[in-house]
Amino acid sequence: MAKWPDMSAGWLIPMPYQGVSVSNFNVESCGTKAKLMRTLLITLLLFTVSRANAAEEPILVSPQWLHEHLKDNNLVVLHVSFLQFDFDQEHIEGAQYLWPENLAPNSPQGSYNAPDVKKATDLLRSFGVNDNSHIVLYNVRNEVSPTARMFLTLENLGLQGRVSFLNGGFDAWKREGYAVTSVKKNAKTGNVTLHQGDRLVDKNYVLKTLDSNSGLVVDARAKQYYDGEPTGNPRDGHIKGAKNITYFDLVNDKNEFKSLDSLRGYFSPVASPDKELVTYCFIGQTASVVYMAGRMLGYQMKLYDGSMQEWSRIPSLPMEKTEAPK
Fold first, then answer.
1. For residue 315, what is the DSSP state?
2. CA atoms in the 13 A half-sphere facing the CB of 196
3. Which helix (H) or strand (E) holds 61?
4. What is the spatial distance between Cα 154 and Cα 135, in angstroms, rounded to a whole number?
5. Which is nearest to 216 in space by CA: 149, 274, 263, 262?
């Protein structure tokens, strides 16, 4: 709980006010201007501490939760799918359509890159996202991993604690019998501000992690590819020293994230929660599922954006295959 300064005997303010030196300035003795200054400072302090202590929104929400909060003034729902056709046919009332490549663009340098901050800002503002908005993402059918990448991208743009994921996606919403619509609702332009974060890391960060005692590298791909089965990349196997947590083990056959106890069963043998985990896959998409699960368990998570698409092409970067049992 925040501890407030004692105002009973006046507050010494270590800053100038309208050109007056106040290094030894007693607020109670200075009339109207001092009272106004004190009020402004208390208001600012209350606002700052309330923002700092504000509870983060849950990473996962249920269909029931979303149904109960759908009319909240600060809620923005984003329908994530590769084809707008799906959105045009049916979606949750009030949802906006998010094409994954708008926030994870491909380029000649590689797949699934971080977006330009200005373009991302313009896009989210067009969805009605404000600085106090709570964003809920939902996937269509089995498109959990691209939607998880949108979750990671939004956190990387400074929105951690303000983004949630509808567990089970659109199918779970419909199984509960909640209404859908084909009518698109236009959003009032928002005012959100974004910045590029540090959740997406490069190959040099991975190399430093491999030499560190405070972090581990985690391969999110299927075990056979981790072990060394050919994938079509220039080199097969995994980043030397990386552990394996297969992304599709973390969701059930209804495309819902498994319980925290079940998720812990995959993570605990790899690392304790005090370790930072840097996850990767083929192009930085499916590893986003591991990123999300780790976040739910309290791990510090990052994602190597180049993934095997980049790493396997640079001969100087260390790789290995799993040794066959003797």
1. T
2. 9
3. strand 60-61
4. 9
5. 274
